[in-house]
Amino acid sequence: MSNTHTAADIDYLLSPRAIRERTAEVFALAEAGKTHFSLHLDRLPATCDFVMEVIQDNYPTLDIPFHSRWGHFKVGGMDRLADFKAKIADQDALAQARAKLDLVVTSVLLDAGAGTQWRYQEGEHFFNRSEGLAVASYHMFLSGAFSSDAEKPLQADATGLQNLSEADLEAAFQVSESNPLVGVAGRTRLLNALGQAVANNPTYFPHGRVGSLVDYLIATHGESFEVQDVLRAVLDALGSIWPGRVQIDGVNLGDVWPYAPEDSDVDTLVPFHKLSQWLTYSMVEPMWDAGLSVTGAEKLTGLAEYRNGGLFLDMGVIALRNPALAQHKHVPSSALIIEWRALTLQLLDRIGAMVQERLGKSPAEFPLAKVLEGGTWWAGRRIAQQLREDGSTPLHLDSDGTVF
Questions:
Q1: Which of 23, 181, 194, 382 could be cross-linked to 342 through a Cys-Cys bond (beta carbons 3.0 to 4.6 Å apart)?
Q2: What is the SS3 assignment for 183?
Q3: Crossing angle, helix 306-314 and helix 44-58, to 10 degrees?
Q4: What is the pTM of this model?
Q5: pLDDT tens digits, residue range 82-92?
Q6: Residue 315 · residue 383 · CB < 8 Å
């Protein structure tokens, strides 16, 4: 493996192709016994059985949406989005799309791991983890917290986002000493940086708000484009918001990590673009609602995060060569976490193909975005709850709230 670290790498490192090819190289190292993990691919069929069971439980008719943020807004059997859609019903289709994108982008960027102690109270109900973060961010958005215009509260504009404080976030997310939320400072900085990106890039955000990225896509591609066009727009427009990452020619590459494992001559960059792809999957539905044609979701990859990664660890498809490492916290830049995430993506492609074959569906008919939503993400949560009382991840992450 090698990397020339030139400007010519930028297009490559911001592509789904690079994610698959670079993680395949890490997978090959694991097969050769040169990573922190051993591979046990004979466990894949049983893992697929488990995922199929979860799919049948969650979506018996196989009417599965993309794995996106929208499903989390319905937690507890409540259709919160009906209220939101009623509030914007008098706007035209494109304006409604902007509002939906304002909501979903801010919510996704607040969706990194919450920790095991935090929960959000809505009436008599309590929600934690990703769903709790979704409900909290939903109510924060509806309160006008991301808008600088009191007469237009249902938007996320440059000034509103830049003015957001940690205290604002703590209040909206009900944070206290007895209800701590991981990464408050990191989340706040991320939304402040989002506001700065919107202000600095009128080409991508012609209306000075997050959701006007849809206007850029229409201006660039017309009313028909591919999901990977959305991903590239997200990566280009929001690249500046990610903290302290790899840069080439002044371009912040985001969720891309230098990988140089011990006792090896390997030196490369491994891209994942987890939050950006999660964001992209979440942006497609509002664009469809606005009458745009957005296709090619099968070209994106799975998501390298702890539910999908935990599934493969907990099911024994991968195993730590040194089990004691499970007792320590690991930062996202560590070789161990880079390897875990890379193996997760490669295994998601394999599980995805197995699920598609069992269902008799093509990748275009049943893209990985549906495999994730129907099965692997929820399967990762289910096995974690079966094995650990608090349902936590099998590896301990030292995250700043901007990766997972």
A1: 23
A2: coil
A3: 130
A4: 0.89
A5: 999 999 999 99
A6: yes
